[in-house]
Amino acid sequence: MKLLNSTGVRAPNSDHVEVRQIYDSVGLKPITGGSDDDVLSTPTLQDGTDQRKMKKKSEENCGSIGVVSCRNRVNIGTLNVRTIREHYKRVELAKLFLDSNIAVLGVQEDRIVHDEEIRIEKQAKGVHLVTTSAWRNSRQAATGGVGFMLTQRAYKAVSLMKSYQGRVFLISFDGNPRLTVITVYSPTEGSSEAEAEGFHECLRGAISDVPALHLLMVVGDLSAHLSRVDVNDKGWYWHQTQNRNGGLLRDTMLEGYLEATNHRFQKRPNKLWTHLSDGTLCQSQIAKDNYHTDPSESTGERVRECKEALAESYRLVEKETLSFKISQAENAADRCKNKESWALINDTTGRKSKPCSLAEGGSAKGRLRNWKAHFVKLLGQPPSVPDQELEIPAIHPMQSISVEEFTRDELVEAKKTIKEGKAYGNDNIAPEVLQRVDMDEIIL
């Protein structure tokens, strides 16, 4: 039985999915893609080796180099990595990628800025990281960036790579059926309407470039909440309301004859606050700023409406969290996991929760003042010196240490302290050489 917090889904049954009515020219259309646009389609290598012969030999050694087939199960995933600029993070991601038995992984928000339109970086055990460049915001911080992590087999099957405005990245694979995967990083719900619509226009253009007979998958961070369209919609949805990005996503799916295969994405219980990313908080902040610039009755009413909408969102999240915990406790009880059941009950009811300590003071400034008084009393008062001009006698007498060049007598005395069989010093000269070889003139 599939758990509710699992994001793994099967590919849709082709009997229930409409085929996109687009002309298929076996490869991508020459105008929008093909050998001229493919960064991997150079006919020969630098040493003159024919890539077609190498590809045929590779096929003979390891069979068909296609990614998907009707006989074998293939895992294709997506992950918002939240930055992999550092090399060690990319190495760690490649290790987890191999351990997860994934063939193609769509990567978003890698925040890797480079000059190339598409960069290919080889990792350990044949894993390849293909990325488009991220961009910089007004504070010159790296933002966005999409790409793919591919196994060696998937990389050999690549026939086309194409970037669309930085947020959309398309990659096609040879095989039967031919596979095309598009990874995307959508603007957030708080972005402008024009930016969100521009992103979906770009995504629709990328989808229209894919021939109809290709198996098409769109993966990525879409920042969208999908819910029931009407009472006749019998699908299972995690969200109760649809946000703006969700509406744009539905329009894109209708235009491209696509089906959303995963409505059940759910974060961990301690991350459920991200379900408030439907723009309510952002709209409340905008209304508050407008009220400060124009403190009229209408703007004040708008602030109160946004605050109430925010409170309602919090209440909805709390209700969903409580329902989820109750279902978990019932499931644990059915499996006779009493310890797990009581842990969920105690966590839900707060029966064994520790009280939260708050410093007294009546206000933020009062609490800070009390904290300062507490630590001053705890760590003691600063030392009091009666006379700042008091002369403190030196504990050690002044030593007569020469700062001139070394003399022969000093060198002879130093050589007497050298012990043979010890490690080299900073000069990389063995102690035996200094003891037995007459190098005094050279050293001095």
Layout of secondary structure:
Elements (H helix, E strand, L loop, with lengths): L50 H12 L13 E5 L6 H13 L4 E5 L9 E5 L5 E5 L2 E2 L5 E2 L2 E5 L1 H5 L1 E7 L3 E6 L5 E7 L7 H16 L6 E7 L22 H13 L23 H14 L3 H38 L3 H12 L14 H16 L28 H9 L14 H6 L3 H4 L1
Parallel strand pairs: 1-2, 10-11
Antiparallel strand pairs: 2-7, 3-4, 4-7, 5-6, 8-9, 9-10
Helix pairs in contact: 4-5, 6-7, 7-8
Description:
The protein has 444 residues and is an alpha+beta fold. Among the domains are: 43-222, Endonuclease/exonuclease/phosphatase (Deoxyribonuclease I, Chain A), CATH 3.60.10; 280-349, no CATH class; 416-443, no CATH class. Helices cover 36% and strands 13% of the residues. The chain contains 12 helices and 11 strands. A 5-stranded mixed β-sheet has the order 1-2-7-4-3. It has a 4-stranded mixed β-sheet with strand order 8-9-10-11. α4 packs parallel to α5. The protein is extended, with a radius of gyration of 33 Å.
CATH topology of one domain: Deoxyribonuclease I, Chain A
| CATH 4th-level superfamily of one domain | Endonuclease/exonuclease/phosphatase
As laid out across the biggest beta sheet, the strand order is 1-2-7-4-3
Ranges with pLDDT <50 over ≥5 residues? 1-6, 12-47, 59-63, 272-282
Named at the architecture level, the CATH assignment of one domain is 4-Layer Sandwich
Helix count from the secondary structure assignment: 12
- Number-wise, the strands total 11
Give the overall silhouette.
extended
Q: What does the radius of gyration come to? A: 33 Å
N-to-C CA distance: 83 Å
